Amino acid sequence: MERDTAADGEGDRRVRRLSRVTRLATLVGTAAAVTAAAVCVTALVARDPSHAEAAGGAATSGGLIVAHGSDRHPSQTAADWVTYADHVVAVTPVAEREISPTAEELEHGEGLILRDVTLRVDDVLWSSDTPGKPTPASFAWVAHGWQFTGGDTAHREKMTGEDQPRIELGHSYVMAIEWQPPVCAEGDDEIPGQWRGLGSDSNIPFDGKVLGQGESQGSVTSGARALAAAKAEDDPDDPNHSLEDQLTGKGASDLARALQNAEPTGTSSTASSAAKKGAAARTEATTACE
Length: 290
Description:
Number of strands: 10
Shape: globular
Radius of gyration: 20 Å
Number of helices: 8
Strand content: 15-25%
Distance between the termini: 44 Å
Order of helices and strands: HHEHEHEEEEEEEEHHHH
Largest sheet: 8 strands, mixed
Helix content: 25-40%
C-alpha cells in the first residue's frame, strides 16, 4: 500500500504543534492546563455558544475560546484548599506580556499566544504548616491569552478556562496556590518551578475585596449579580457546589475563617501532601535540569 507522505508530514507537524502546545499548557496556572492533551484539543476548537461559527469557517471577531481540562487537585471545598494548597493569597495583576508563538506556529499560520502575568500579593489569608515555599511578595502566572489563525497573529480570539477567571489587569483575585518544582523531561526544555492553582475552583474574583465580584471567564460580574447567581446554585448537596458559591458576597475574613475551621481530607492524603512538599523543596534545592 502506498503511503501518503504529504498526509504523514502534516500529521507529524500536528504532533509537534500539539507537543509544543502541551508544554506551554502545562505552564498555565489554571486547572485547565493539567491534562495537556485534553486542553490542547479542546482549547483549539471549543467556543462559547454565543460566538458560534460554521465548521471550518474563519474565526469570529470578538469570539471567546473556552479551554477545558481536568483539575490538578480537588478544589471545590475549603477542605480541598487546606489539603493541597501551600498558601491562599489575595492578588492583583500589575503587569503582563505576551509569550510569542514559536517559529513553527508562525510558519503554519496558527497557534497560541499565552500571557506572562505578574501578580502582586496583597494579603495572605491562610498558609499550610508545611508549605513547599514561603509566601511570595509577587509571582509570575502564565495565563490564557489568544489563539491566532489565518497566518496573522493579529487575527486572534481570546482564550479562557472554563468557569474560572482569565486573570486580567484592573482586577483582583483570591488564589489557592501550590509550589511546583522545576520539571525536567528527557529531550525537552526545562519547565521552571512555578506557583500553580489547584483546579477550576481555586481562583475567585475579588474586586473591591468582595468574593465573587469581578472578572471571570473574561467578563466582569457585579457583586449583586454574582450573589444572585450564587444563591441560585447554593445547594450544598449539589456536586458542583463550590467554596465560591458558599462565600460569594463575603469578605477575606469569612474565607480565612472557613479555611481555619476546615479539616484536610483524609489523614493519608495530608501526610502524602506534606511529604511531597518537603521532598519537592529538598529536590529543588539540590538538583537542576541539565
